[in-house]
Design brief:
Low-confidence stretches of chain B: 105-113, 299-309
Number of strands of chain A: 2
Helix content of chain A: 55-70%
CATH superfamily of the largest domain in chain B: Rod shape-determining protein MreC, domain 1
Order of helices and strands of chain A: HHHEEHHHH
Low-confidence stretches of chain A: none
CATH topology of the largest domain in chain B: Thrombin, subunit H
CATH class of chain A: Mainly Alpha
CATH topology of chain A: Arp2/3 complex 21 kDa subunit ARPC3
Largest sheet of chain A: 2 strands, antiparallel
Shape of chain B: globular
Distance between the termini of chain A: 17 Å
CATH architecture of the largest domain in chain B: Beta Barrel
Number of domains of chain A: 1
Distance between the termini of chain B: 70 Å
Number of strands of chain B: 12
Strand order of the largest sheet of chain B: 1-2-5-4-3-12
CATH class of the largest domain in chain B: Mainly Beta
Mean pLDDT of chain B: 77
Radius of gyration of chain B: 24 Å
Largest sheet of chain B: 6 strands, antiparallel, barrel
Oligomer: heterodimer
Chain lengths: 183, 309
């Protein structure tokens, strides 16, 4: 896998997720593209490369979430990083069973992947909610309502993943995957 | 390096390190993660800025509303009423300007600056997934942004304040109502009737508001059954002289009263629910009210002594 290509796509996707996707907001739900990129890499790249890439995507997303401690901003490293690793490990066994070139595969797998990410994300922030002076990023609201929001995020992102996945599959020759499993 | 990345052990060790970081005490993370985040954000900020511009162009936050005939008539009547008030206010302003010139002279002599200047800042980063939280702005200490600087939109709608760590080219805006922010948790506010245009930190009924999340606040207010309801739905709520906020935030609009509830435990008090008018996570730009840094007490004393001769 070409690292340069991955970094370009990573930067592009994170910028889209943190700024441009606001354009597609429906109610309180904004879709994300990072999950689609992660699913594409899990389906197409060699196992270890895919896991490292998911770790990198999650890490960059974690650095894009500002939390507050006593009025001071900080970034919690982990919720997305571990969530993306967990999601990747769930998708990896499935990649030999699915038709990666089918855009619907991307839609379904991205929603499933982001659901897994959401569980880790919520669990870690919920644990941190018990720390003195630390609050979950969803504030005083319940974890259930936050999960509802993340569920909608996963479903909406899954819908967006259908056209995005189709586009990403077209870029496969750029990535230089060795022993690509995409079919 | 490439060889290292090809081992499962390296991945496992990295995962364990991330797991430990994710459960580490917050006070250990605060000093370095914000700085590291700023460095990582450095190449992304200009691109994010451009993307925010596209969002603002494609989906402007305030849609144009075509008023109906009855609304137009009401607006015209209001215009005439305000024209009358403007003429009387103009005379008052002239008087105040004279007084202000005197105060200004005294202030210049003491060297204490309380002026503020507006500066527009673009929101370059929201939390992914549309989760409400702090926002990243493209203005930092180099542009005069200081911790606590107040951000507003539409002239007087309070958006929030700048967090403590301000980097040279960017800053973090904490929107009002975020429960994890101590300054938002407990607000000193005043409620003014919706039809009364009087604004200011001292106008209206005083209330202490507590943030309950989701852009909502609640507070208790004394209720006199003989006088009836003084507070109504739609009344404006403005920040009073709350010392936790810079003086430039005083009098700014927090939101409106959306609900008034009776309290079982205290029949002479009513619970007022206030909702903010803004969705900070949807704002493309904000106006920062930049204040000159407050001089050290020793500098002030010296300046007063020099001014006093």
């Amino acid at each position: 896998m070409r690292i340069g290509v991955f970094i370009l796509f990573l930067v592009f996707v994170v910028i889209l997720d943190t700024s441009l996707m606001e354009m597609l907001r429906i109610g309180g739900t904004v879709p994300g593209l990072a999950g689609t990129l992660a699913v594409f890499l899990v389906l197409a790249a060699p196992r270890r490369n895919a896991l490292w890439a998911c770790l990198a995507i999650g890490l960059l997303l974690d650095f894009n979430v500002d939390a507050l401690y006593d009025g001071r901003p900080y970034h919690l490293i982990g919720p997305y990083t571990l969530g993306f690793l967990f999601g990747a490990n769930l998708i990896l066994p499935l990649r030999s069973m699915v038709f990666s070139r089918n855009p619907l595969t991307f839609g379904l797998l991205t929603a499933f992947f982001l659901l897994a990410v959401s569980i880790v994300y919520l669990a870690l922030w919920q644990i941190r909610g018990h720390y003195e002076g630390s609050m979950p990023v969803w504030g005083d609201g319940s974890a259930v309502s936050a999960f509802g929001m993340l569920l909608l995020w996963a479903v909406y992102s899954g819908a967006i993943a259908i056209p995005m996945g189709w586009l990403l599959v077209r870029t496969t020759p750029l990535w230089g995957f060795t022993g690509s499993t995409i079919r | 390096m490439n060889r290292l990345l090809q081992t499962d052990r390296a991945l496992l060790i990295t995962s364990v390190v991330v797991l430990l970081l994710s459960i580490a005490p917050t006070r250990w993370l605060v000093p370095w993660t914000a700085d590291l985040g700023s460095i990582i954000q450095l190449p992304l900020t200009p691109l994010g800025h451009a993307a925010s511009g596209v969002v603002a162009y494609v989906r402007p936050t305030q849609a144009e509303v075509v008023p109906s005939i009855s609304e137009l008539k009401r607006i015209l009547a209001e215009r005439d009423a305000f024209r009358g008030r403007w003429h009387s206010a103009r005379l008052q302003v002239e008087q105040l300007e004279k007084e202000l010139a005197q105060v200004q002279g005294a202030r210049n002599a003491s060297g204490v600056a309380i002026d503020w200047t507006p500066r527009n800042a673009v929101v370059v980063r929201h939390a992914p997934g549309g989760i409400a939280g702090p926002l990243q702005l493209n203005a930092g200490s180099r542009q005069g942004v200081l911790p606590g600087t107040v951000a507003v939109v539409d002239g007087d709608q309070l958006v929030g304040r700048i967090a403590d760590d301000v980097s040279p080219l960017s800053s973090t805006l904490i929107p009002i109502g975020i429960t994890s922010d101590p300054t938002s948790r407990d607000l000193l506010a005043r409620i003014t009737p919706a039809e009364d245009p009087t604004v200011g930190a001292d106008a209206g009924k005083s209330i202490r508001l507590k943030s309950v999340g989701g852009g909502r606040f609640e507070g208790l207010i004394a209720w006199d059954p003989r006088q009836g309801d003084e507070i109504r739905q739609g009344d404006q709520v403005r920040l009073a002289r709350d010392r936790a906020w810079q003086s430039t935030a005083w009098g700014m609009l927090i939101g409106t009263v959306v609900e008034i509830q009776s309290t079982d435990d205290n029949p002479l008090r009513k619970r007022v629910i206030v909702e903010t008018l803004l969705y900070p996570e949807r704002l493309p730009t904000v106006t920062l009210k930049l204040q000159a840094p407050t001089p050290e007490p020793d500098d002030v004393r010296t300046a007063v002594e020099e001014g006093g001769g």
